[in-house]
Amino acid sequence: MRFSSLSMSSLFALALLSPVRARGDDPGQPTAAEEATPGWVPRVDAFIDAGGELGMDGWDGETLGDDSGFFLRTLGVFLDSRLSPAVSFFAGICYGDGFGVGEAYISLHELLPGLDLRLGKIRQSFGAIQRWHLPRMDQFDLPLPLGEYLGPDGLAQVGVSLDWSLPAGWSADPRIELQLTNGSDPRLFSGEHFSVPVGLLRISQAILPSSSLRLELGLSGMYGANNRRALEDESGQRVDEPWRTTTVAGVDLSLLFFVDERDYFTWRAEGIWVGKQTGPGYLAAAGGYSYVDFSHADRWVFGLRGDLAQPFAEDAEGELLWQAVAYASWMPWAWLRMRLQASHADGTRAPAEDRLILELTLCTKMPEIARARRSR
Questions:
Q1: Global pTM?
Q2: What's 8-375's CATH class?
Protein backbone atom coordinates (compact mmCIF):
# COMPACT_ATOMS: atom_id res chain seq x y z
CA MET A 1 0.00 0.00 0.00
CA ARG A 2 1.46 3.37 -1.02
CA PHE A 3 0.50 6.40 1.07
CA SER A 4 0.57 9.95 -0.25
CA SER A 5 3.06 12.37 1.30
CA LEU A 6 0.24 14.86 1.87
CA SER A 7 -1.69 15.14 5.13
CA MET A 8 -5.32 14.07 5.33
CA SER A 9 -6.67 17.63 5.39
CA SER A 10 -4.41 18.68 2.52
CA LEU A 11 -5.64 15.81 0.38
CA PHE A 12 -9.19 17.03 0.73
CA ALA A 13 -8.03 20.50 -0.22
CA LEU A 14 -6.27 18.92 -3.20
CA ALA A 15 -9.56 17.32 -4.24
CA LEU A 16 -10.90 20.82 -4.75
CA LEU A 17 -7.98 21.87 -6.91
CA SER A 18 -7.22 18.74 -8.95
CA PRO A 19 -8.45 18.39 -12.54
CA VAL A 20 -11.34 16.01 -13.19
CA ARG A 21 -10.28 12.55 -14.31
CA ALA A 22 -12.10 9.42 -15.31
CA ARG A 23 -12.14 6.59 -12.79
CA GLY A 24 -9.04 4.47 -13.22
CA ASP A 25 -6.86 7.19 -14.80
CA ASP A 26 -3.35 7.55 -13.45
CA PRO A 27 -3.51 10.70 -11.25
CA GLY A 28 0.14 11.38 -12.00
CA GLN A 29 -0.41 11.83 -15.74
CA PRO A 30 -2.03 14.94 -17.26
CA THR A 31 -5.33 14.45 -19.03
CA ALA A 32 -5.72 15.28 -22.71
CA ALA A 33 -7.82 18.31 -21.74
CA GLU A 34 -5.04 19.57 -19.48
CA GLU A 35 -2.42 19.21 -22.18
CA ALA A 36 -4.59 21.11 -24.66
CA THR A 37 -5.55 23.91 -22.26
CA PRO A 38 -3.17 26.82 -21.56
CA GLY A 39 -2.27 27.03 -17.90
CA TRP A 40 -3.70 30.50 -17.45
CA VAL A 41 -7.19 29.43 -18.61
CA PRO A 42 -9.11 28.53 -15.43
CA ARG A 43 -10.72 25.14 -15.11
CA VAL A 44 -14.33 25.54 -14.00
CA ASP A 45 -16.04 22.93 -11.83
CA ALA A 46 -19.51 23.17 -10.34
CA PHE A 47 -21.45 21.45 -7.58
CA ILE A 48 -24.91 21.56 -6.03
CA ASP A 49 -25.80 20.40 -2.53
CA ALA A 50 -29.53 19.96 -1.87
CA GLY A 51 -32.02 17.63 -0.23
CA GLY A 52 -34.82 17.29 2.27
CA GLU A 53 -35.07 17.32 6.06
CA LEU A 54 -37.62 15.79 8.44
CA GLY A 55 -37.57 17.10 12.02
CA MET A 56 -39.10 16.16 15.37
CA ASP A 57 -38.60 17.36 18.95
CA GLY A 58 -37.57 14.68 21.45
CA TRP A 59 -39.39 11.77 19.80
CA ASP A 60 -42.67 13.66 20.25
CA GLY A 61 -44.90 12.48 17.42
CA GLU A 62 -46.99 15.66 17.60
CA THR A 63 -43.97 17.69 16.50
CA LEU A 64 -43.15 15.42 13.54
CA GLY A 65 -42.68 17.64 10.52
CA ASP A 66 -41.66 20.77 12.44
CA ASP A 67 -38.80 22.64 10.76
CA SER A 68 -39.00 20.21 7.83
CA GLY A 69 -38.88 20.68 4.09
CA PHE A 70 -36.59 20.77 1.09
CA PHE A 71 -33.40 22.82 1.06
CA LEU A 72 -30.76 24.11 -1.32
CA ARG A 73 -27.74 24.40 0.94
CA THR A 74 -25.08 25.39 -1.55
CA LEU A 75 -24.67 26.02 -5.25
CA GLY A 76 -21.05 26.66 -6.12
CA VAL A 77 -18.41 27.09 -8.79
CA PHE A 78 -14.69 26.49 -8.38
CA LEU A 79 -12.15 28.27 -10.57
CA ASP A 80 -8.64 26.85 -10.69
CA SER A 81 -5.80 28.18 -12.83
CA ARG A 82 -2.14 27.18 -12.89
CA LEU A 83 -0.61 30.43 -14.08
CA SER A 84 2.93 29.03 -14.06
CA PRO A 85 4.81 26.18 -12.36
CA ALA A 86 5.33 28.51 -9.38
CA VAL A 87 1.97 30.35 -9.26
CA SER A 88 -1.65 29.17 -9.15
CA PHE A 89 -5.03 30.73 -8.41
CA PHE A 90 -8.16 29.28 -6.82
CA ALA A 91 -11.60 30.74 -6.08
CA GLY A 92 -14.80 29.22 -4.75
CA ILE A 93 -17.97 31.24 -5.39
CA CYS A 94 -21.04 29.90 -3.61
CA TYR A 95 -24.73 30.63 -3.23
CA GLY A 96 -26.42 29.63 0.02
CA ASP A 97 -28.29 32.24 2.03
CA GLY A 98 -26.80 34.66 -0.48
CA PHE A 99 -23.85 34.94 -2.85
CA GLY A 100 -20.43 34.84 -1.26
CA VAL A 101 -16.80 33.96 -1.78
CA GLY A 102 -15.94 30.88 0.23
CA GLU A 103 -12.26 31.04 -0.68
CA ALA A 104 -10.12 33.03 -3.10
CA TYR A 105 -6.34 32.99 -3.00
CA ILE A 106 -3.12 33.00 -4.98
CA SER A 107 -0.56 30.29 -4.20
CA LEU A 108 3.19 30.67 -4.63
CA HIS A 109 4.81 27.23 -4.75
CA GLU A 110 8.24 26.08 -3.60
CA LEU A 111 9.50 29.39 -2.23
CA LEU A 112 11.85 27.07 -0.36
CA PRO A 113 11.89 23.29 -0.66
CA GLY A 114 8.46 22.17 0.55
CA LEU A 115 7.28 25.73 1.38
CA ASP A 116 4.15 27.20 -0.25
CA LEU A 117 2.46 30.54 0.39
CA ARG A 118 -1.23 31.35 -0.01
CA LEU A 119 -2.56 34.91 -0.01
CA GLY A 120 -6.25 35.82 0.06
CA LYS A 121 -9.37 34.47 1.76
CA ILE A 122 -8.65 30.99 3.09
CA ARG A 123 -10.41 28.36 5.16
CA GLN A 124 -8.22 28.13 8.21
CA SER A 125 -6.30 24.97 9.03
CA PHE A 126 -7.47 24.52 12.61
CA GLY A 127 -7.82 20.84 13.46
CA ALA A 128 -8.32 17.90 11.16
CA ILE A 129 -11.45 18.80 9.18
CA GLN A 130 -12.17 22.55 9.54
CA ARG A 131 -10.22 23.10 6.29
CA TRP A 132 -12.71 21.04 4.26
CA HIS A 133 -15.66 22.59 2.46
CA LEU A 134 -19.04 21.36 3.75
CA PRO A 135 -20.05 19.42 0.60
CA ARG A 136 -16.73 17.52 0.86
CA MET A 137 -17.30 16.47 4.47
CA ASP A 138 -17.60 12.87 5.60
CA GLN A 139 -20.90 13.86 7.25
CA PHE A 140 -23.61 16.39 6.45
CA ASP A 141 -22.47 19.06 8.91
CA LEU A 142 -19.58 20.06 11.13
CA PRO A 143 -19.33 18.31 14.51
CA LEU A 144 -21.08 20.17 17.30
CA PRO A 145 -18.01 21.73 19.03
CA LEU A 146 -16.59 23.07 15.75
CA GLY A 147 -19.93 24.60 14.80
CA GLU A 148 -20.40 26.05 18.29
CA TYR A 149 -16.95 27.66 18.51
CA LEU A 150 -15.86 28.29 14.89
CA GLY A 151 -19.29 28.81 13.31
CA PRO A 152 -21.68 26.43 11.50
CA ASP A 153 -19.93 27.00 8.16
CA GLY A 154 -16.39 26.89 9.55
CA LEU A 155 -13.83 29.67 9.87
CA ALA A 156 -12.56 31.51 6.78
CA GLN A 157 -10.68 34.84 7.00
CA VAL A 158 -8.47 37.02 4.80
CA GLY A 159 -4.73 36.82 5.23
CA VAL A 160 -1.61 34.83 4.41
CA SER A 161 -0.75 31.17 4.98
CA LEU A 162 2.64 29.46 4.96
CA ASP A 163 2.42 25.69 4.43
CA TRP A 164 5.66 23.81 4.97
CA SER A 165 6.12 20.10 4.25
CA LEU A 166 9.26 19.08 6.12
CA PRO A 167 11.59 16.26 5.13
CA ALA A 168 10.47 12.92 6.53
CA GLY A 169 12.35 11.91 9.66
CA TRP A 170 10.99 9.71 12.42
CA SER A 171 7.49 10.53 11.14
CA ALA A 172 6.25 10.03 7.60
CA ASP A 173 4.62 13.40 6.95
CA PRO A 174 5.70 16.32 9.19
CA ARG A 175 3.94 19.58 8.33
CA ILE A 176 3.83 23.09 9.78
CA GLU A 177 1.14 25.61 8.84
CA LEU A 178 1.34 29.24 9.96
CA GLN A 179 -1.47 31.68 9.14
CA LEU A 180 -1.90 35.41 9.83
CA THR A 181 -5.39 36.75 9.06
CA ASN A 182 -7.81 39.52 9.89
CA GLY A 183 -9.85 38.91 13.03
CA SER A 184 -13.08 39.38 11.08
CA ASP A 185 -15.06 36.62 12.82
CA PRO A 186 -17.19 38.35 15.51
CA ARG A 187 -17.78 35.15 17.46
CA LEU A 188 -14.12 34.88 18.42
CA PHE A 189 -12.41 38.13 17.46
CA SER A 190 -13.02 41.82 16.84
CA GLY A 191 -15.28 41.32 13.85
CA GLU A 192 -13.69 44.19 11.97
CA HIS A 193 -12.30 44.11 8.45
CA PHE A 194 -9.09 45.83 9.60
CA SER A 195 -7.94 44.49 12.95
CA VAL A 196 -4.97 43.13 14.85
CA PRO A 197 -3.92 40.00 12.92
CA VAL A 198 -4.93 36.61 14.28
CA GLY A 199 -2.17 34.01 14.37
CA LEU A 200 -2.73 30.31 13.79
CA LEU A 201 -0.16 27.53 14.08
CA ARG A 202 -0.78 23.89 13.21
CA ILE A 203 1.78 21.09 13.52
CA SER A 204 0.92 17.63 12.22
CA GLN A 205 2.77 14.41 11.58
CA ALA A 206 1.96 10.89 10.48
CA ILE A 207 3.26 7.50 11.54
CA LEU A 208 2.99 4.39 9.37
CA PRO A 209 3.29 1.36 11.67
CA SER A 210 2.53 -0.96 8.74
CA SER A 211 1.59 -0.89 5.08
CA SER A 212 -2.12 -0.93 5.98
CA LEU A 213 -2.15 1.47 8.94
CA ARG A 214 -1.72 5.25 9.14
CA LEU A 215 -1.78 7.30 12.34
CA GLU A 216 -1.84 11.10 12.24
CA LEU A 217 -1.56 13.54 15.16
CA GLY A 218 -2.21 17.27 14.93
CA LEU A 219 -1.81 20.19 17.35
CA SER A 220 -3.48 23.54 16.59
CA GLY A 221 -3.43 26.92 18.30
CA MET A 222 -4.94 30.32 17.49
CA TYR A 223 -4.47 33.67 19.22
CA GLY A 224 -5.92 37.12 18.49
CA ALA A 225 -7.63 40.22 19.85
CA ASN A 226 -11.39 40.63 20.27
CA ASN A 227 -11.69 44.22 21.50
CA ARG A 228 -13.38 46.68 19.16
CA ARG A 229 -11.96 50.05 18.14
CA ALA A 230 -13.32 53.41 17.01
CA LEU A 231 -16.66 52.99 18.77
CA GLU A 232 -18.88 55.98 19.50
CA ASP A 233 -19.70 56.60 23.17
CA GLU A 234 -22.78 58.40 24.52
CA SER A 235 -21.20 61.78 23.79
CA GLY A 236 -20.41 60.83 20.19
CA GLN A 237 -16.65 60.54 20.71
CA ARG A 238 -14.71 57.69 19.15
CA VAL A 239 -13.19 55.39 21.76
CA ASP A 240 -11.42 52.03 21.85
CA GLU A 241 -12.36 49.12 24.08
CA PRO A 242 -9.67 47.82 26.48
CA TRP A 243 -7.31 45.25 25.01
CA ARG A 244 -8.82 41.75 25.17
CA THR A 245 -7.65 38.48 23.62
CA THR A 246 -9.00 35.12 22.46
CA THR A 247 -7.12 31.81 22.61
CA VAL A 248 -8.16 28.60 20.84
CA ALA A 249 -6.31 25.29 21.24
CA GLY A 250 -6.97 21.87 19.77
CA VAL A 251 -5.61 18.36 19.41
CA ASP A 252 -6.72 15.75 16.85
CA LEU A 253 -5.92 12.10 16.26
CA SER A 254 -6.78 10.11 13.12
CA LEU A 255 -6.34 6.43 12.38
CA LEU A 256 -6.86 4.79 8.99
CA PHE A 257 -6.84 1.02 8.56
CA PHE A 258 -6.84 -0.28 5.00
CA VAL A 259 -8.43 -3.69 4.41
CA ASP A 260 -7.40 -3.34 0.76
CA GLU A 261 -6.89 -0.45 -1.65
CA ARG A 262 -10.60 0.47 -1.80
CA ASP A 263 -11.94 -0.71 1.57
CA TYR A 264 -10.84 1.00 4.78
CA PHE A 265 -11.87 2.15 8.24
CA THR A 266 -11.41 5.73 9.53
CA TRP A 267 -11.44 6.67 13.21
CA ARG A 268 -10.99 10.31 14.14
CA ALA A 269 -11.21 12.24 17.42
CA GLU A 270 -10.65 15.93 18.13
CA GLY A 271 -10.77 18.14 21.21
CA ILE A 272 -11.01 21.94 21.23
CA TRP A 273 -10.79 24.60 23.97
CA VAL A 274 -11.70 28.29 23.65
CA GLY A 275 -10.89 31.08 26.08
CA LYS A 276 -12.07 34.65 25.46
CA GLN A 277 -11.60 37.77 27.56
CA THR A 278 -14.84 39.78 27.67
CA GLY A 279 -16.04 42.94 29.37
CA PRO A 280 -17.80 41.08 32.24
CA GLY A 281 -14.98 38.56 32.72
CA TYR A 282 -13.52 35.46 31.07
CA LEU A 283 -15.50 33.08 28.85
CA ALA A 284 -14.18 29.53 28.42
CA ALA A 285 -15.64 26.41 26.81
CA ALA A 286 -14.41 23.03 25.64
CA GLY A 287 -15.73 20.15 23.57
CA GLY A 288 -14.84 17.25 21.36
CA TYR A 289 -16.12 14.72 18.87
CA SER A 290 -15.23 11.27 17.60
CA TYR A 291 -16.43 9.24 14.64
CA VAL A 292 -15.72 5.96 12.93
CA ASP A 293 -16.76 4.98 9.43
CA PHE A 294 -16.14 2.31 6.84
CA SER A 295 -15.67 3.04 3.14
CA HIS A 296 -16.29 0.31 0.57
CA ALA A 297 -15.23 0.40 -3.09
CA ASP A 298 -15.24 4.23 -3.24
CA ARG A 299 -19.05 4.07 -3.38
CA TRP A 300 -20.38 3.27 0.10
CA VAL A 301 -19.64 4.91 3.46
CA PHE A 302 -21.25 3.91 6.78
CA GLY A 303 -20.45 5.76 9.98
CA LEU A 304 -21.30 6.82 13.54
CA ARG A 305 -20.32 10.06 15.32
CA GLY A 306 -20.64 11.44 18.84
CA ASP A 307 -20.30 15.13 19.84
CA LEU A 308 -20.02 16.86 23.22
CA ALA A 309 -19.59 20.59 23.84
CA GLN A 310 -20.03 23.29 26.45
CA PRO A 311 -22.12 26.19 25.11
CA PHE A 312 -20.04 29.21 24.12
CA ALA A 313 -22.06 31.71 26.17
CA GLU A 314 -21.49 33.78 29.29
CA ASP A 315 -24.40 32.33 31.28
CA ALA A 316 -23.84 28.66 30.38
CA GLU A 317 -21.47 27.49 33.11
CA GLY A 318 -21.95 23.80 33.84
CA GLU A 319 -24.19 23.21 30.81
CA LEU A 320 -23.55 20.64 28.10
CA LEU A 321 -24.68 19.99 24.54
CA TRP A 322 -24.41 16.54 22.96
CA GLN A 323 -25.32 14.87 19.71
CA ALA A 324 -25.32 11.36 18.23
CA VAL A 325 -25.17 10.92 14.45
CA ALA A 326 -25.49 7.92 12.12
CA TYR A 327 -24.93 8.27 8.38
CA ALA A 328 -24.68 6.27 5.18
CA SER A 329 -23.71 7.54 1.76
CA TRP A 330 -23.81 5.97 -1.68
CA MET A 331 -22.20 7.13 -4.92
CA PRO A 332 -24.09 5.34 -7.73
CA TRP A 333 -22.37 7.41 -10.40
CA ALA A 334 -19.09 9.29 -10.49
CA TRP A 335 -20.86 12.65 -10.31
CA LEU A 336 -23.55 11.95 -7.68
CA ARG A 337 -23.43 11.20 -3.96
CA MET A 338 -26.56 10.39 -1.94
CA ARG A 339 -26.43 10.52 1.85
CA LEU A 340 -28.93 9.61 4.56
CA GLN A 341 -28.15 10.97 8.03
CA ALA A 342 -30.08 10.62 11.29
CA SER A 343 -29.17 12.64 14.38
CA HIS A 344 -30.39 13.22 17.93
CA ALA A 345 -29.25 16.38 19.74
CA ASP A 346 -29.93 17.36 23.34
CA GLY A 347 -28.59 19.70 26.00
CA THR A 348 -29.02 21.18 29.45
CA ARG A 349 -31.38 23.89 28.27
CA ALA A 350 -32.00 23.20 24.59
CA PRO A 351 -34.95 20.92 23.77
CA ALA A 352 -34.15 17.53 22.28
CA GLU A 353 -34.11 17.57 18.48
CA ASP A 354 -34.24 14.69 16.02
CA ARG A 355 -33.46 15.09 12.33
CA LEU A 356 -33.51 12.83 9.31
CA ILE A 357 -31.72 14.30 6.29
CA LEU A 358 -31.53 13.04 2.72
CA GLU A 359 -28.78 14.93 0.89
CA LEU A 360 -27.86 14.88 -2.80
CA THR A 361 -24.52 16.28 -3.92
CA LEU A 362 -23.78 16.61 -7.62
CA CYS A 363 -20.18 17.53 -8.35
CA THR A 364 -17.96 17.36 -11.40
CA LYS A 365 -15.03 16.39 -9.17
CA MET A 366 -16.61 13.54 -7.28
CA PRO A 367 -14.02 10.97 -8.52
CA GLU A 368 -11.28 13.12 -7.02
CA ILE A 369 -13.02 12.99 -3.62
CA ALA A 370 -12.94 9.20 -3.64
CA ARG A 371 -9.31 9.17 -4.71
CA ALA A 372 -8.37 11.64 -1.96
CA ARG A 373 -10.14 9.60 0.73
CA ARG A 374 -8.35 6.43 -0.39
CA SER A 375 -4.89 8.05 -0.58
CA ARG A 376 -4.81 10.10 2.61
A1: 0.81
A2: mainly beta
